[in-house]
Each structure stands twice: as structure tokens, then as C-alpha cells.
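In response to reviewer comment 3 from the previous cycle, which asked for concrete evidence that the modeling workflow produces usable outputs, we include below a single protein chain processed end to end. The sequence was submitted unchanged, and the resulting C-alpha cells are shown without manual editing.
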Amino acid sequence: MKSKEEIELELRSGNKQNFPGYSAPLEYRLLRKTDGLLLAPVFRLNAKSIRTYLSEYQHSQHWWLKDTQAFVTACVNDDFPTMHYLFTIGGRPVALGSLQSFGDSSNEVQIVLAVFGTNQGKGIGTVVAQTLKKIAFEVWGFQSVWWIVDATNRSSIQVAQKIGCTWDSTFTLDEKSGEKGSGLWNRFVVYRDPNLADGILQGADIDY
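The workflow returned the following C-alpha cells.
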């Protein structure tokens, strides 16, 4: 298995040139309760786009934008396998990414992410998704990673495909994704390579 530190080093080394317009590399860490203060102004400025571009996923009530601290606290207190990560550039938050529980299986998770405001459209979402996929497969050893997206959200579908997800099924919901949502949803999935080294779920040392 890999450690999260090793994956972070890979993330940094893979982005030595940084993203266009940024003078520092993309970094990540687990979300902390104290991040409410850091995220409050970001949510105020970008609440509309976050609502629009977040895909439907289990426990969506935890993305509570009216009260940032309550949202952050709910995320930090989520039970395994749900884990939330804050992505920053130069200490400034640019995205949130989560591995969320999926259905009743303890071997499956789904990726949920939001790239904030002017940070969209620069490839950050793809790198965030790739990082979460690596954590899911190479650290924890989940057997499948899912991606649920409104059928109109072309950019999110493209990110799913870039990290190796393929279409699984389509379904309808009365709930729509933001102002542009159709109520028609697609499920995408990518399965763990059986040649990967054992992760924590296969018995690897969690202390490592």
C-alpha cells in the first residue's frame, strides 16, 4: 500500500510547473473543524456555483452552505468510509474533495468534489479526482469508485472519464443539481486494479 504522504508527494511532483496563473503547487489534507473560518468567505462568494456543480451523492445534506461551521463539523464527524479533504494552493482553499460512502457496501465509495469559483476550468478538478482515486485504491483498497453526475454537467462527466470511470447506468430524480440540473443522472464507475499492492482493507498496516 501507499501512505497518504507518498500520494501527496506524487501530487506535488506531478505538478512541478504549477497550474497556469498560480505560483505555488496544489496540496491537500484532511478537513479540520477549524477550517470553518477559512471556508466561510469562500462559500459566501461561491455558494451558487457550488450548488450548481456538485453532483448528487449519498448524505448530501452534509453540504450545508448556510452555516459553514456546521457543514465543516458535520463533515469531520462523518463515519468511515466517508472522508473529506481540503485542497489548497499557497494556503488558499481552491477545492473540496470527498470519498463518500456508497450504498450498503464497505468496499465501495464515491468521489464528490467542488472546485471554487475562478479556480474552475484549469484542470484542478481532474487532479483532485485523480488524487482521491489513488487514496481510495492505493491507501485504503476499496474495490470500486463511483461518480454520480447530472446528465447536463459535461465538465464533471469529462473529469470522471479522465480518471478512468465508465458509464454504468442512468436514473431520474425529482431533485435537480443547481439551476442547470435536468433531474436525469448518470452513474460512472472505475474498479480497482487487482495487481495493486494490498491496502488497509486487505490487511495492510494502518499505522503505516
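The helical segments are 4-13, 35-53, 68-76, 124-140, 154-162. We consider this sufficient to address the reviewer's concern, and the full set will be provided in the supplementary archive.
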